[in-house]
Specification:
The protein is an alpha/beta fold. The protein has a single domain, classed as TIM Barrel, CATH 3.20.20.70. The protein contains eleven helices and eight strands. Strands 1-2-3-4-5-6-7-8 form an eight-stranded parallel beta barrel, surrounded by seven helices. The longest helix has 13 residues. The structure holds N-acetylmannosamine-6-phosphate. Pfam families: NanE. Keywords: Carbohydrate metabolism, Isomerase.
């Protein structure tokens, strides 16, 4: 465990995830994404679901952080001990679990869940939203605390589209366990600021691995007058293809 964390210290972890229905969903695409991130210098991969974890584990010797999302509401990141065990079985070095103060669907406390994983030699990354949750997760025995859920649990009303670097700073100052900065880190400058704030490691997902969202941000920046000129001469973008440009 110490060596795994040493390998990630001062380095970038890339989160490679695609939802069912998205063109890149599935272990083949996510493995290619992970290998692309590694080629660019990522020191570890965070990935979702036993199938993707197993495929990416087979493709790299670098640290793999696994999780399992169940739904999109409430406690959905590796919500139960059983999910965590299956992610570990698939080959994750570190299992990321929801570590917010919300009740867990299997009725276990966070400490009971972490204790049961530790009994089996499984290391735990605690995904938190707030400072108090970070402290509680470390008390409960988490090996790593990550700011993954900051801004996603309705506790933080302001600037919810930016990373919570103040939370990174506060947790890094208060905790002995490594604190990972994760969530809405969109630029290299924000990554640098997260390390300055004390992050052990920084996890970046969508800004690297969600091409549809990245494309949409460019499309949204097209000035109205340029878009209007295009419509006047050639019709709306994508109008020559079926349903938004997708065939079949
Ligand atoms: C809130 C939640 O469900 N976060 C998930 C956790 O695994 C992923 O959807 C994020 O992509 C990941 O945390 C990285 O964050 P970002 O994509 O913002 O760089």
């Amino acid at each position: 465990m110490t060596s795994l964390l040493d390998d990630l210290r001062g380095r970038l972890v890339v989160s490679c995830q695609a939802y069912p229905g998205e063109p890149l969903h599935g272990p083949g695409h996510m493995t290619a994404m992970a290998l692309s991130a590694i080629a660019g210098g990522a020191a570890g991969i965070r990935c979702e679901g036993p199938d993707d974890v197993r495929a990416i584990r087979a493709a790299t010797t670098l640290p793999v952080i696994g999780l399992w999302k169940v739904g999109h509401e409430g406690v959905y990141i590796t919500p139960t001990l059983d999910h965590a065990l299956r992610v570990a079985d698939a080959g994750a070095d570190l299992v990321a679990i929801d570590a917010t103060a919300r009740p867990r669907p299997d009725g276990r406390t966070l400490a009971e869940t972490i204790g049961a994983l530790h009994e089996r030699g499984i290391a735990v990354m605690a995904d938190v939203a707030t400072f108090a949750e970070g402290l509680a997760a470390a008390d409960a025995g988490a090996d790593v605390v990550s700011t993954t859920l900051a801004g996603y649990t309705h506790e933080r009303g302001d600037a919810a589209d930016a990373p919570d670097l103040e939370l990174v700073r506060a947790l890094a100052a208060a905790l002995d366990v490594p604190v990972f900065a994760e969530g809405r880190i969109a630029t290299p400058n924000q990554l640098a600021t997260a390390f300055e704030a004390g992050a052990w490691s920084v996890v970046v997902g969508g800004a690297i691995t969600r091409p549809a969202a990245i494309t949409a941000s460019f499309v949204a920046a097209i000035p109205a007058h340029a878009a209007a000129a295009g419509v006047a001469t050639a019709g709306p973008v994508g109008a020559t293809e079926t349903s938004g440009g997708l065939r079949g």
